[in-house]
Amino acid sequence: MFLPVLLMQWFGWSGFLLIALPNCIGAAAMGLLLGSPEASRQFCARHATLMKWFEKVTIGFHLVFLAIIGRWWLDPEGHLAIWLLPLAAITIASALSIAPRQWWPAMGAIAFACGGLVVFNANQPDVAVVWTGTRSIMDLGWMAPIFCIGFILCPWLDGPFHRARQETDGPWSSLILGIAFACMLLVTASYSWIGPSAISNAVIAWLIGQSIFTMAANMREMRHGVGQAIVRIPWLVEIAVVGCIVFVCFKPTWLQCTDLYLRWLSLYGLVFPLLAIAWCRRQSPRPNTAHIIRVTLLILIASGLGEVGFIHGPAWVGAIAVVPVLAAFITWPRSTS
Q: Is the pLDDT confidence value at 216 over 80?
């Protein structure tokens, strides 16, 4: 619920479409292409480890973002909110994650309805959003391939998305999910004006509430799992989260905080799509040492190109980052079993 803010500031409504179209299409297409709840259960069982990593990274991503909220909008001069806000949020999310199954439709409906309250209480300045922003429209074209690949492929690793597919017999849940994403993104458009010193209490509450809800949904799948698989995950994500929060404590600039945010997002635009292409196709091989070395090299190449293109510039280098991601299609041996 923050990436559209950056994109609309950079590109206006063109940036909104950059995230809205692939996001809504990807959310709907995953459930439609799976075809049935049983197909979703089989996919989750085959790829339980990667899906657990995806869920854990998503939780870590929101904790880092909450630390940024604490740094800029709750306690700009101190460190207390930087640590307490993520700690309080994950505590509440943990409690919500064990809520009974019948509570979740109501919780989701409440979260969705709160978006309407944000639209009417965002205190948006009288500034019209146009089709351009602070960055060249050419930069948008260079960024588009990574955004499209990320938003189309990442839903396949999203436990809550699979939960929605497995709890319904027909394709309607997937279509509704895509429409709901469009509505939520329009809510984000209502506060695209926010910045390091400009925000409303309604938007702060919305960002915190959405982070808690998303973490709770992912923690629910971490605990039970749509594939009912128990997977032990090393502490790499926790170390990265703590390191990033420590970094935020050193009072980085707004630009440095947004760069940190974008670096976490690169996991969804580069790393997870590459892993999905490599290991989640029907004929993908089981990972072995050679495969892991190969995917590591591709990730390092893609990450380096993404760092230059999306953080430092020029933007056209970011478009090249899609090449090692797509290389997984042609360089990965097919399973013979």
A: yes
